[in-house]
Amino acid sequence: MRLLDAIGYFKEEWLSVHQTRCLNLRHRMEVCDSCTKGCPQQAITVSCEDVIIDPALCNNCGLCVSDCPTGVFEHDFFNPMQLVSWAKGRSHIDMFCHMSGAADLGEGQARIPCHGMLGESLMGALKAVGVRELAVHGLSGCSDCPTRQGGQRLSEMMQQSSVSDAWPTVLIDVEEGDAGSAVQHGGADSGNHAEPVTSRRGFFIQIARKGAEGVASTGLVKLLEDPEPEVYSENVGVDDAALMNKFVPAHHRLALVSLVAGNGRGVAGHLHKITATDSCTGCKTCATRCPTGALSWSDQGESVTLNYRSAACIGCSLCVSICPYQALALEPQQNEEMVMQDHETVLFSSEQNTCEQCGDRFLPHDGDNRYCWICKNEMEMDHQWMSMLKTADGE
Predict the structure, then answer these.
(1) Taking 50 as the threshold, does the pLDDT of residue 335 lie above it?
(2) CATH 3.30.70.20 placement within the chain
(3) Are strands 345-351 and 169-172 parallel, antiparallel or unpaired?
(4) Which of 32, 68, 86, 117 is the most exposed place for a label (fewest CB within 10 A)?
């Protein structure tokens, strides 16, 4: 493909924006800048009110599709679930970018806008459905491409990832009749509650309760056969595959596919986990704002707990950003059993006291724990007023 043809390709608008999925807009807080930091053209502007792509700067490289944790951006020529469905059962595939390869692709050949879109979750899903070798074509032309970052991103991901043994063997810049430069990344195989699903949070809560072993009935296997099920509508009866397609970001669907389709043989490092330190006070901010219900607050009366499920976590790091005590951290999930089964991790737990003044339960705090914060503050204010009155009366 000539450079002028590639530029013409990039100048058409093939990106769509789903603003309601943006964490900043949904929570009226500027907590995420993944797309703006990752855009090589600096074409994206995000605020608490809007997500804007400048058409004069955007070249439709699609890297924002992979960068966004909540699926705000979609590309007309890149559907990762369709790619995984097509690759199912193929031991070797050839992957071209839009700067390389013939116009008509042959058997076992596929094209994506940019190789930088080959993220950890996609690589894991490809391995899980049978791909053992992935030949990547066109990285030598990155310097002539308007994006210029595809090869660099792919290389950095392969060097930094802690789960590369769960990927196919990657063959870099393979030419016709050439074995290419092989970069080895593994190669060896490695109680439900019914609930109406009308929101992303509700759907993820349902997934978490089932665990990934039950996700086959939640639509992932069907999505491999039909990546574009019937679009969800309040007026149309839908199945779990359609709900999965609507509510779950593509990279998270791929990560779960890699566990389900791979029968748990892979590692879960392309999924995520939240950890908490002793700085956690049980303020409930994270559980209240979590968009998927991966973090939940449980009040048993005498005690309270902050609970976490990896199966529902999309790695958006909203909880980390808004924690007032900087007590949370986002890390790779290395334990597939935490996802494959309905495991729940307790991040914080505490006994509750009963206030001697109002009778309400409250979490213990430093100092006198006979009274809750509200009553304690009111008593201190009353004491200050009485002291002022005594001073005014000359006492």
Answers:
(1) yes
(2) 1-77
(3) unpaired
(4) 86
Residue 148 Rama label (left phi>0; alpha psi -120 to 50; beta): left
Fold of the 1-77 domain: Alpha-Beta Plaits (3.30.70)
Residues in the chain: 395
**Cα–Cα distance for residue pair 163/186, rounded to 1 Å:** 9
Give the DSSP per-residue string, 277-307.
-TT-----HHHHH-SSSSEEEEE-SSEEEEE
The per-residue pLDDT for range 270-315, each reduced to its tens digit, is 788 999 998 898 888 999 889 888 999 998 888 899 999 988 888 8
Look at the alpha carbons of 201, 203, 207, 210 in this order and tell me if their dihedral is positive or negative.
positive
Q: Which of 90, 110, 111 is nearest to 6 (CA)?
A: 111
Query: pLDDT tens for residues 152-194?
Result: 888 888 877 666 677 888 888 655 444 444 444 443 333 334 4
**Gap between the Cα atoms of 291 and 311, Å rounded:** 13
- pTM for the predicted model, two decimal places: 0.76
DSSP letter for each residue of 151-185 = HHHHHHHHHH-S-GGGSPEEEESPPTT---EEE--
The type of residue at 334 is Q
